[in-house]
Design goal:
Strand content of chain B: under 5%
Radius of gyration of chain B: 19 Å
Helix content of chain A: 40-55%
Largest interface: A-B, 29 and 25 residues
Number of domains of chain B: 1
Number of helices of chain A: 4
Order of helices and strands of chain A: HEHHEEH
Shape of chain B: globular
Shape of chain A: elongated
Number of helices of chain B: 7
Oligomer: heterodimer
Strand content of chain A: 15-25%
CATH superfamily of chain A: Winged helix-like DNA-binding domain superfamily/Winged helix DNA-binding domain
Amino acid sequence: MSLNDDPGSTPMHPLYVVDSADYTFLMHHTGLTWGNLATHLGKLEEAGYVAIEKQFVDRKPNSMVRLTAVGRAAFQTYKTQLQGVFNDLPD
Amino acid sequence: MAPTVDLERVEQQVWTAYFADGLWEIFLATLMLTSFLRPYTDSLWAYLLMAGGILAMILGKKHITEPRLGRVKFGPSREARRSRLMAIILILVIVTAVLLALAQLGVGVRMGNWAGIVLAGMVTAVFLFTAYLLNFRRMYGYAWVIGGAIFITEVWGEAAGMWANLIGGLLLLATGLFLLAQFLRRHNVPEMN
C-alpha cells in the first residue's frame, strides 16, 4: 500500500496533524466506512506506519491510532515529493 | 491531479470542530444567567444553575460530541498552548483575588469603586487569553459580553447589570442552542461494525 492511494481518504493526513486518534475521528475525517478504514489501517500497521493501541473507555473497547516515527518520516518524504511535483509544473 | 493538502489548515479544522457543538456557549450562558438570578433567588438555586451548566458541558462533550467526532489527542504544540493558558488564567485569578482582598482590607491599595472595574477587566482578559490560546474566535466576542456585563454592574448598579446579564445570557444561550442543533444535524453517530 502506498501513501498516495486516494489522498483524500487516507488516514495518514489527519494522523499527521495530531498525536493520536480513534476510529470514529478517522472515519469522520476521511469519509471511509468502518470496514474500509480497518483495512487501510491494517495495511498501514503491517507496513509499520501506524501503531494501534487497544484500550477500554467506560468499559467499551476503544482503539487509539498514532503514526510511528517510520510513518511520520514516510509521510514527510511523500509530502516533500508531492510539493516537488507541483513546483516543477509550469505555470 | 492529486489534491495538495494544507496540513496546518487540516489541524486547525480538526481543532475548531470540537468548538462547533455550542456547549461552550451554553455553559457561558448559565454563568451569565446565574449572575442575573442571584439577587432574585436564594443563592443556592443560582449556584445549582451554574453547576448544571458545568455538568451539561462535561456530559455533553462526553455523550454528544465525542461519539460523533471521536477521541483525539492533539500534538505537543497544542498541549503547550493549553498549559500556557492554564498558567496565565491562574496568574490572573491570583492577581485579581489579591487586589480585591487588599482593597477589601484597605491594605496598601485603595481602589474604592475601581475594584469592580478591575475585576471586569481581569475577567475580560481571562476570556480574551482563552480565545487566543484555544484559537476559539467566537470567544473574543463573548469576552466583551461577559466583561461588559460586569462593567455595567459596577458602573451603573445592580439593576442595570442584571439586564446586561439577562440579555447577554439569553444571546449566548440562543447561539449555543442554534450551534448544537446545527452540530446534531451535521454529525451522526457513525455505524461501527
